[in-house]
């Protein structure tokens, strides 16, 4: 029986721009928002959009990520007719090699997709923060009878040169694709979210795999080739919150966005929940002398000092006389008495010594404190 759509989630990137946070951890497994990991967002979007078959393509430092995902139980995807399947690179009769690019990763798993016989394939990235109903995008794709539909979002025109830009006609059909243009014609940026008609994409993947000059990438090779050959390609405009958290600065900004009064990424929306692995912790404790303002404090944390406009993950200790301002403190870190942390990200299981001074709330830099090293971004 033909499946209408399945999802393939690309989660194998190194995330080198996140520095020490991804030295021993896949980028999609990086912590976010007080209790989540980045990959929780696309997985939750799949669950909420009733897409029940998800292949997760992992590669770099994937042990913890694989353990976190499991069989998809935290997202309600472990059903009789659905489920999450981890798809690392593997050796076959034809040989085996690491995923050489986003398109090659899908190509190496053609057998998995064929086994489910889908009409369409949804391609996702595992390192973006957003909430999106993919079923609405699928409706648009079906109505347009598209061979490919690419989700786009309007960005400031001065930032458009950082993205793949879609130039469209009045029907939203893509007539030109520019990869990081120096002088962009518009501000419709690709979100890295694609729906392809599988029978069409399959042929392009097989052809691309034989091309020794190709980088085997959707943005650099597959999409331009499909456009050149006149395939029906459309841009689906998304109006919600979306953030590529590929740098320390963007990760910090996305966390701080959660604390704004006009935050459009509502984590408290019961109609579109973000699911994750709920680790069992002791209750949160806040002492009589503690001061907490405009912050997210997770379970198991012990607060004796001041916390202002910050995200505090589970089992964090904030000592007496300590002040944490505009910062993200990841799980099981310990901020000793008298320390001052401003405009910083503290990695998990880090100890900040007594009376330390890190960061500057009035400066432009974001400080990252990890077990390995300290960086000023």
Automatic annotation (TrEMBL):
Domain Glucose-1-phosphate adenylyltransferase/Bifunctional protein GlmU-like C-terminal hexapeptide: 289-361
Residue sites binding alpha-D-glucose 1-phosphate per the record: 99, 164, 179-180, 190
Key words, A-Z: ATP-binding, Carbohydrate metabolism, Glycogen biosynthesis, Glycogen metabolism, Nucleotide-binding, Nucleotidyltransferase, Transferase
NCBIfam families xrefs: glgC, PRK05293.1
A single BP term in Gene Ontology: glycogen biosynthetic process
Pathway annotation: Glycan biosynthesis; glycogen biosynthesis
Name the record gives this protein: Glucose-1-phosphate adenylyltransferase
One Pfam family it belongs to: Hexapep_GlmU
Function: Involved in the biosynthesis of ADP-glucose, a building block required for the elongation reactions to produce glycogen. Catalyzes the reaction between ATP and alpha-D-glucose 1-phosphate (G1P) to produce pyrophosphate and ADP-Glc.
Transmembrane stretches, start-end: none
HAMAP family listed in its UniProt record: GlgC
